[in-house]
Amino acid sequence: MVVWARVAAALIVVATLAACSTSYGPSGVLNGGYTDQAIGGDQYHIEVRGNPFTSVGIAEQYFFRRAQEIVKERGYDGYRVVVLKSGLERHGDFSQGVARGVIQAYHNGDKAAEGGQEAGDRSAGRQSFKASGTGFFLGTGGFVMTNQHVIAHCQDITIRQFDGTVVPASVLAADPANDLAILKSSAKTTSYARFREAPDVRRGDNVVAFGFPLTQFLSSGGAVTNGTVSALSGPKDDSRLLQISVPIQPGNSGGPLLDQSGNVVGITSSGFRGETQNVNFAIKASVARGFLDSHSIGYQQVPSTKSLSTSDIAALAEKFAVYIVCTGS
């Protein structure tokens, strides 16, 4: 009982307003912050550790901000991310947003900058970071839904479709409070996601997530994971969220959470890291639909009456899910 009480306390803290999050700066004893260390070969290890009020998205933003500063302070032309891991980690009775990883800094023309999914734009010499996530088509008009934190601070956005077609996209609308965004692209598609109309989602329902996690190490063609709906609310009874046991990794953010009929019941958003396993969250479809309605973006709702296999759901999802790449400075 003591262990579960502490986990509950940690989850409650995660939901506290971002206004109380860590101020950007070097790591302090109480308020968190960043640390970095040169590890040789123009590589640098960066760790951002928040206070109990810091979200994962803020920790990731600070990681990229510090990486950009290292490039400028040390006279490099750019960098690529070698590895980045982020999430919520327990610290005593609390949890805190953490982002840590390694960047490879380079000068234009260096071999270190060659290749790699996270490589900067060497020809322009201006792109300081490249991040990625997942989204999904809402219809045939090229509109894509994803998380706001996936496209935050982007200067250029591209989406890659199932057939390999890559097209630019722009942010049509963003809702940082609910971590949602709508992208507009010229993509042509006949495959798109449909939202679940009925029945209501229940605890114990089987769900499937499709996305593009850790593509610098894992498959670039998308990955499917499954689990159950653990609770109908998030931290501190946040009714906007579903708690799910589906594993969520960096890169899954913004992807569809699907029921057994292959219909969208949520948008994967965040995970709880630390001793507790399989505690992850998705934004409810009702919140996403409200966001779309407020911007007059059309979508389809259908009843969930079928029971498909996970492989059949994955076959549907890979056709309407897209891989999002964001570059910024």
Task: Summarize the structure in short.
The chain has 329 residues and is an alpha+beta fold.
Summary keywords:
6-stranded antiparallel β-barrel; single chain; 329 residues; 18 strands; Thrombin, subunit H; 2 domains
What this model shows, in words?
- Residues 9-21 and 111-127 have low confidence and may be disordered.
- The protein is built from five helices and 18 strands.
- It has a six-stranded antiparallel β-barrel with strand order 5-6-9-8-7-18. A six-stranded antiparallel beta barrel has the order 11-12-13-16-15-14.
- With 329 residues, it is of the alpha+beta class.
- The protein has helices spanning 2-14, 56-73, 148-151, 285-294, 310-320, and strands at residues 33-40, 43-49, 78-91, 94-106, 129-137, 143-146, 156-160, 166-175, 180-185, 195-196, 206-211, 223-231, 241-244, 256-258, 264-272, 279-284, 301-302, 321-328.
- The longest helix has 18 residues, at 56-73.
- It starts with a helix and ends with a strand.
- It is 17% helix and 38% strand.
- The protein folds into two domains: 2-123, no CATH class; 128-329, Beta Barrel (Thrombin, subunit H), CATH 2.40.10.
Fraction of residues in helices?
10-25%
Secondary structure class reads alpha+beta
* CATH class placement of the largest domain: Mainly Beta
Q: Can you write the helix and strand succession as a string?
A: HEEHEEEEHEEEEEEEEEEHEHE
Q: Output the CATH topology of the largest domain.
A: Thrombin, subunit H
* Strand percent estimate: 35-45%
Rg over CA atoms, rounded to whole Å, is 19 Å
